[in-house]
Specification:
mainly alpha; 76% helix; elongated; 6 helices
Length: 173
């Protein structure tokens, strides 16, 4: 397990959470991620970088909507129950780095790291819970975070290819 996941993470508290609470925690984590990306975008003056950050915020909004739909299917007619304290994956080391980023490639690299940590968090929680329904939910959430990672990785590789292509265009004969 990475240092980012171990650092201050009270994962043991979540083993006894109900399925409803675990899903509420996941929704809250998506809201927090979206708000983080939106606040970061407000601080950036580089338009291309701002667009990428806003794209990330929109992705988090879509994932929140998906989780809310899942919640309403599992708990019809109930309002989402959020845990009192946010005890999702501790991404403080990544958040500190993201706030300093002024380059699109670095932004995507650190966002990928955050998604890896989140997926690892849900997989660890899956190992800890006993009920099969909770295990399936944690696996689903881990897979969703991995999906975020691979989406970001595709953007990252395109940006690396574009940067290399741009540099080659300036080297010509």
């Amino acid at each position: 397990m990475t240092i980012e996941v171990r650092e201050g993470l009270p994962i043991e508290k979540m083993v006894d959470f109900s399925l409803e609470e675990l899903l509420g925690m996941a929704i809250k984590a998506e809201i927090g991620a979206r708000e983080f990306y939106k606040s970061l975008a407000e601080k950036i003056n580089i338009e291309a970088l701002k667009e990428k950050i806003n794209w990330l915020a929109e992705e988090e909004r879509k994932h929140e909507a998906l989780l809310r739909k899942l919640y309403s299917q599992m708990f019809p007619g109930k309002e989402v129950v959020f845990p009192e304290e946010h005890i999702g994956p501790e991404l403080q080391p990544v958040a500190r780095e993201l706030e300093k980023v002024q380059d699109i490639i670095d932004l995507i690299r650190w966002a990928m790291k955050a998604e890896e940590i989140a997926a690892e968090f849900y997989l660890k929680l899956e190992e800890m819970v006993k009920e099969e329904e909770k295990k399936r939910l944690m696996r689903y959430l881990a897979d969703m975070e991995r999906g975020h990672y691979y989406t970001l990785r595709a953007k990252y590789e395109l940006l690396l290819d574009w940067e290399m292509y741009s540099q080659m265009m300036h080297v010509g004969p």
